[in-house]
C-alpha cells in the first residue's frame, strides 16, 4: 500500500478518522439512513453489492470504522477505504484510485439533509461505493480507470472518459435474473434516483461503450437515460478498449 509520500498529489488530502469523536446523534443518523435505504436495496441491488455489504460487516446501527472496513477489504481485492479531508482535484483522485485507495470522507450529513447532500459524505462513500470494491472484477476495473486517467492531462479526453465512470460507478445498472438491478453509488445511496429508475421514469438502454461516451453527464436533474451492463466483465473490457484507442490516437467513440 503506497504511503502518503508516494501519493504525492493526494498526500495533502489524507487525514485520520477520529471515530471516537462521532456523537450518538451521528450514529443515529447513520442508522436512519441505512434503515431508509435497505428495504429497496435488498430487493433491487445487484447481488455483488449485497455480497460486498455483508462481507464487510457494515453495521446497520453505527457509523463504519474505516480501518476495520479496510482490514477486511484489502485481503480480498487490495482496496482500502482511505480517510480524506474532502473534495479532491482530479489528479489526486485518479492517483488514489490507481493505488486502490478509495478517497473516503469522514463527515456525515445532518438530520435536515437526510435526502440529499451536494457533496459526498461517509454515507455516500461507504454505503454507496465501498461494498462494490469487494468484487474482484469491479475492483480491477476501478483501479484500471484510475491508472488510465492518471496518465492523461487533456481535460476534454478526461471529461469523455468520465462518462464511463458516471454511468457505471456512480449510476450503473446491471441485468440480473431478467431484472434491472442497481449497483452505482448514486442509485444505492439515493431513494429519489433509485425510485426514478424502478418506477420507469428513466430510459434504460444496453451498455454500449460508444453510446455511453456520446452521452453527456447532467448533474442538476434526475436522470432520463441510464445504461445497463450484462456483467462486470463488460466494464472492465470497456476500459481496455478505451486504453487502446488512447494509445493509438483514435477517436474515443469510434
The geometry reads as globular
Query: What count of structural domains?
Result: 1
Order of helices and strands: HHHEHEHHHEEHHEHEH
Q: How many beta-strand elements?
A: 6
Count of helices?
11
Segments where pLDDT lies below 50 for 5+ residues? none
Distance between the termini: 37 Å
The proportion of residues in beta strands is 5-15%
> What does the main sheet amount to?
4 strands, mixed
Rg, nearest Å: 18 Å
Mean pLDDT: 94
CATH-level-2 architecture: Orthogonal Bundle
The fold-level CATH name is Phenylalanine Hydroxylase
Please state the structural category: alpha/beta
Portion of residues within helices: 40-55%
By CATH reckoning, the class would read Mainly Alpha
The CATH homologous superfamily is termed Aromatic amino acid hydroxylase
Strand order within the widest sheet?
Answer: 4-3-6-5
Description:
With 254 residues, the protein is α/β, with parallel strands linked by helices. The chain has a single domain (11-248), classed as Phenylalanine Hydroxylase, CATH 1.10.800. 49% of the residues lie in helices and 11% in strands. The protein has eleven helices and six strands. The chain has helices spanning 24-44, 47-55, 66-77, 90-98, 122-129, 136-150, 155-170, 185-188, 191-198, 209-213, 232-248; strands at 80-84, 101-105, 173-176, 179-182, 203-206, 225-229. Strands 4-3-6-5 form a four-stranded mixed β-sheet, sandwiched between helices. It has a two-stranded parallel ribbon with strand order 1-2. Strand 1, helix 4 and strand 2 form a beta-alpha-beta unit. Helix 4 crosses helix 6 (136-150). The chain is globular. It starts with 23 loop residues before the first helix and ends in a 6-residue tail after the last helix. The mean pLDDT is 94.
